[in-house]
Amino acid sequence: MLDQNMLLKQKKAGKLNPLQEQFIEIDEEIDLSDIKKILENNKLPDEQYTKQKQGQITIDEEWAIEKIYKKYKTNFQKAYIDHKVNTFMWTESQMKKKYNAYIEKYGQCPKN
Question: What is the domain partition of the chain in residue ranges?
Answer without folding.
Answer: 59-106
